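Problem: given the chain below (131 residues), write out its structure.
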Amino acid sequence: MDAGCEVLMPWAAPIGTGQGPRNAPALRELRQRAPEIPLIIDAGIGLPSHACQVMEWGFDGVLLNTAVSRALDPVRMGGAFAQAVRAGRSAFLAGPMAVQRLAVSSTPVIGRPFGLDGTLGSVVSPLFEAT
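Solution.
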């Protein structure tokens, strides 16, 4: 960036391979270390899900050709990529949940129709008597 570049364009994978992000931790770290620098993935994207994924990490865009030009239906594939990029950016802006190491239930136990042992739980409902 000191040389006057305005955008950094790292590869997800070797150009034309369609392998998707091969070094996800390095790409995510790059984004974290350079939040003010526009980052556009320049090569290696093969599926709309790859584009969505890098956009979820906070990248500013993807540049692709082979994934669309070699598709059986390039117009449809281009549309799929457009939707994936929008979805990934939207997810990034929405602030995804933090990844957990262990399972953590997000469903409240109160008001559940069944207890953990499979028996009728303590529900106050016109359909069931409270136990």
